[in-house]
Design goal:
394 residues, alpha+beta, Heat Shock Protein 90, 2 domains, five-stranded mixed beta sheet, 9 helices, 7 strands
Length: 394
């Protein structure tokens, strides 16, 4: 309130000085004693209204209270000026008529502008009500500039984001249900067969081994889901250090070589002569390499090749995992990093579809980037990481 009072007093002083310059000290004095008390009283009343605005109702009632305050202030100023300065009642009458007409026209203009602003606010409120009731196909429809339009745009963006998140959640639940259903159904059938005694002892042992594989697949899926959730929520702790990429790649290639040979796929490492270093968590970067090499082996036909390269690029380092498979269409290159996304939905041996999603979460937590690059043949997945010391992702 003190700042508003000071501004009102400053305005009264400026008008007083102007009156003094134009008509002398007496006019200046009359202007000061007329405007200063009215301005101070109006500021005090306005702040009381603001303090109790919750009891006035909506914006329309609050705007009406402000308009009434302005009208009272203007009327009081006119009455005082007429009483103190006018000798001719003729001049006083026409001044009052002019001010009254200006007030009516101003009220009509403010009402028109206020109606548009309040209509936009009503559109925002109705949109939020619809979203609260579960709808995600609504938008405010407010266009233009200004604060209300910016608020409406933020509301529309929020609704669109909620819609996308709910679609992703439904897709995730559907994918999880699908991936859980297959091993659970197989486990139930195998367990029923063993329990009912319809198979001999040798077959029972085979069934038990198959059940163990299905249980392992379920465990892997649950572990991957848990890790992806923790990565996205930032709950994991990281052991950041300078990691020698060549050693990391050699270990990963050797670990995946038996799986590659079982699929008649050659896997090899092409390492940078300078032994590049990356700043990161060695165990989790190793997980990225395992995921990428495993995916490459799965999608490479027999007698194909998977090549893992390391190189230094300016301030960073890059790892490439390239295969000689069928490649990934351009329109699918971003979607393959979504959880449970598969290029071929008919495949049953391609895992749960979480490997690339986990890899992206790990790389981005390191401040790096992972993407599908253009390749003359097959698929080229590239990972770029920083070499310098950076902030701990946790």
């Amino acid at each position: 309130m003190s700042r508003s009072l000071a501004l009102a007093a400053l305005a009264a002083a400026a008008l007083t000085a102007l009156s003094g310059l134009a008509y002398g000290s007496h006019a200046a004095w009359l202007t000061l004693v007329t405007l200063a008390p009215i301005g101070a009283a109006a500021v005090v009343v306005a702040h009381l209204v603001v303090a109790r605005r919750a009891g006035l109702g909506g914006l329309r009632a609050q705007a009406g209270a402000v308009a009434a305050l302005i009208a009272v202030q203007t009327g009081a100023a006119i009455v005082l000026f007429v009483d103190l300065m006018f000798v001719s009642r003729h001049d006083a009458f026409f001044l009052v008529v002019l001010c009254a007409y200006a007030a009516v026209v101003g009220f009509l203009c403010a009402r028109a502008l206020g109606r548009g602003a309040l209509a936009d606010l009503d559109a925002v409120r109705e949109t939020l009500d619809a979203v609260a009731n579960g709808r995600r196909d609504v938008r405010t429809g407010v266009a233009g500039g200004g604060e209300i339009a910016e608020l409406a745009a933020e509301v529309d963006a929020m609704v669109a984001r909620l819609d996308g998140e709910e679609r992703a959640r439904r897709a995730l639940i559907g994918a999880v249900s699908h991936d859980l259903r297959t091993p659970i159904t197989a486990l139930r059938l195998l367990a029923d067969a063993v329990e009912d005694g319809v198979v001999d002892e040798r077959t029972s042992r085979e069934y038990a081994a198959r059940m163990g594989l299905h249980v392992q697949a379920l465990g892997t899926l649950i572990d991957d889901l848990f890790e992806l959730t923790r990565l996205e929520s930032g709950e994991l702790r990281w052991s950041m250090e300078q990691v020698a990429l060549d050693a990391l790649v050699r270990d990963a290639v050797e670990a995946m070589r038996p799986a590659a040979e079982a699929s008649s796929v050659a896997v090899r490492a092409v390492l940078d002569a300078g032994d590049p270093l990356a700043h990161g968590d060695a165990a989790r970067l190793q997980r990225v390499l395992f995921n990428l090499i495993q995916n490459a082996i799965r999608h490479t036909p027999a007698d194909g090749t998977v090549t893992v390269r390391t190189s230094r690029l300016g301030e960073g380092v890059e790892i490439e995992v390239a295969d000689t498979g069928a490649g990934i269409p351009a329109e699918e290159r971003e979607r393959v990093f979504a959880p449970f996304h598969r290029l071929d939905a008919a495949r049953t041996d391609a895992g749960a579809g979480l490997g690339l999603a986990i890899s992206r979460a790990i790389v981005e937590a390191h401040g790096g980037r992972i993407w599908i690059a253009d390749a003359h043949a097959g698929t080229s997945v590239r990972v770029r990481l920083a070499t310098g010391v950076s902030a701990d992702p946790a």
